[in-house]
Amino acid sequence: MKLATLCYVRRGGRTLMLHRVKKKDDVHEGKWNGLGGKLEPGESPEDCVIREIREEAGLRIKNPVLKGVLTFPDFAKGEDWYVFVFTAASFAGKLIDSPEGELRWIPDRDLLKLNLWEGDRVFLPLLRRRGHFSGKFHYRAGRLVKYKVEKY
């Protein structure tokens, strides 16, 4: 089981996205993702998301907002992934040359036009609504085969 975070940093009608094109054997290769990564021992999800955004983008986010939790059974290497999804609108710093991929501010109206995981098209619109969500996404050979989302 893996615990991870995912964050969508927003500014002026745009969302910071990461085009995963730099790491060899990346399960996300060629996809556009929010930023985030695995929790380290002793970290809370908030600690993790703040650290990951600093490492991947050079930004110091403030007050990340937990929007939901995603479950990906048997996603990569036979492991279940549980992902805490955040948004952040307050930050400082300048973007770095990310070791994970190419960073781009994407107009919100264009997010669903990107090469995303199929499940991202389901939950990304939920980031704009009040309340929280929980989702379970089943992938087989890189394709979404089943999902369920609850809104609170």
Quick rundown:
The chain is mainly β.
How would you characterize the overall build of this protein?
This protein is mainly β and 152 residues long. It has one domain (2-145): Nucleoside Triphosphate Pyrophosphohydrolase (Alpha-Beta Complex). It has helices at residues 45-57, 120-123; strands at 2-11, 14-19, 32-33, 60-62, 65-76, 79-88, 90-92, 102-107, 133-140, 143-151. Strands 1, 2, 3, 5, 6, 8, 9 and 10 form an eight-stranded mixed beta sheet that branches. The longest helix is centred in the middle third of the chain and has 13 residues, at 45-57. It starts with a strand and ends with a strand. The model has no long low-confidence stretch (mean pLDDT 95).
Topology summary:
Blueprint (H helix, E strand, L loop, with lengths): L1 E10 L2 E6 L12 E2 L11 H13 L2 E3 L2 E12 L2 E10 L1 E3 L9 E6 L12 H4 L9 E8 L2 E9 L1
Parallel strand pairs: 1-6, 5-9
Antiparallel strand pairs: 1-2, 2-3, 2-8, 4-7, 5-6, 9-10
